[in-house]
Amino acid sequence: MICEKDRTLSFGVGNYAVLMMLQPDFGTLAIIGTVSLIVYFVGGGKISHLLIIFLAAILAIVIMVHFKPYQMQRFECAFNPTVAPATNAIS
User: Fold this and answer.
1) CA distance 63 to 4
2) Is residue 33 within 8 Å of residue 57, measured between CB atoms?
């Protein structure tokens, strides 16, 4: 069962994540999310909870890319430097 401390942490990090997803910069969200998960794990968080959070994050990224196509172009440029970024990526 999830204790009250875990719920508070999830609620706080979740709120920040939603607000950061509304911004065009994904890097800040990735860094804060990664650090939050590391702190949660080091603090004694369960692996099963981390897996659920990770799967929810993947789903959120897929939804974000669907509604913000310029984010997909940024991912493509990050993982394949030979892809030229679009000149009018942010409309």
Assistant:
1) 29
2) yes
CA dist 68 and 62 (Å) reads 10
Could you tell me where the DSSP H helices lie in 1-91?
4-21, 26-42, 47-67, 69-79
Are 63 and 69 contacting, i.e. CB atoms less than 8 angstroms apart?
Answer: no
Burial of 50 per CB tally in 10 Å (0-12, 13-18, 19+) = middle
pLDDT tens string, the chain, 91 residues long: the values are 555 555 565 666 667 677 776 776 777 778 888 888 888 888 888 888 888 888 988 888 888 778 877 777 777 777 777 776 655 545 4
Q: Is the pTM here over 0.90, yes or no? A: no
- Maximum CA extent, the chain: 49
